[in-house]
Amino acid sequence: MIEYLQGSKQHTELHLTQFGMEECIPGHFFGPAVRTHYLLHYILEGEGIFEVGGNRYRLEKGQGFLIVPDVITYYQADETNPWSYCWIGFSGTLAETLLKQAGLTMASPILHYNRDDIICQYLQLMIDSREYRKARETRLTGLLYLMLSELAEFGPSTPPGHKESRTEIYVEKVKDFIEINYAQKITIEDIARFIGLNRSYLCSLFKQRMNTSIQDYLIRYRMNKACEMMANAELSIGDISRSVGYSDPLLFSKIFKKMKGVSPRQYRTGETDRHKVNSPS
């Protein structure tokens, strides 16, 4: 059983391209070949081999393998105990990040999950979603998120051979917090409180890793977002100011000019050389 799905304009971050289940005959194989999307197989019974990047893996029930886009792979069912498996194919800008959370990358393509039958349950729900006429695509996307969250929760936190340092983890948390909350009146204290570290210690870690202060990173992030908003003619300078966390348009204009070399109005109307404006300050 296999179902192919059309591309998604609504769920560009993550969407299913196909899913299915198969009981393979002895020796059944595919490849060597490449795919244009991610393909994750999960073995329900039996065994077989998976080859990628010069490595050969012998796999069995409770394991699986990840096929990465544009990478040559080969897989084959065992001659005496052929595997049956289910699979999901998917694409999207968040696919790689979500797979990494489950410990799955091109360098670490083997899935280990032998807790329960939750993967089969999600696959059945995908099949049953055919009864949804208006919102099937959204339901399928939600089920894909749930399945990947299950693999991330009970899989390795990082791929073997790569462990993030505490500094990297804290720095990424700061960047994520700013990305989500830059439009609010956030302070460095707010960020430190959210992460659970002393303000001075967090600032020191961030400066050491990023070669800039948290405050400067926040301001630069806001000004870059403001530049993106300038293209929307429906937004006034005041609208943009408030949208990037400044209730005072005059203060926003002052900081913008200091960072970009021109006022927001000059930037928008192109009164100066944009190459100069966008050069690092």
From TrEMBL:
Alphabetical UniProt keywords: DNA-binding, Transcription, Transcription regulation
CDD domains: cupin_MmsR-like_N
PROSITE patterns named among the record's database cross-references: HTH_ARAC_FAMILY_1, HTH_ARAC_FAMILY_2
Name of this protein: AraC family transcriptional regulator
HTH araC/xylS-type domain mapped to chain residues: 172-270
Pfam families referenced in this protein's UniProt entry, alphabetically: AraC_binding, HTH_18
Coiled coil: none
InterPro entries xrefs: AraC-bd (IPR003313), Homeodomain-like_sf (IPR009057), HTH-like (IPR037923), HTH_AraC (IPR018060), HTH_AraC-typ_CS (IPR018062), Tscrpt_reg_AraC-type_HTH (IPR020449)
Lineage, opening ranks: Bacteria, Bacillati, Bacillota, Bacilli, Bacillales
Keyword DNA-binding (UniProt): yes
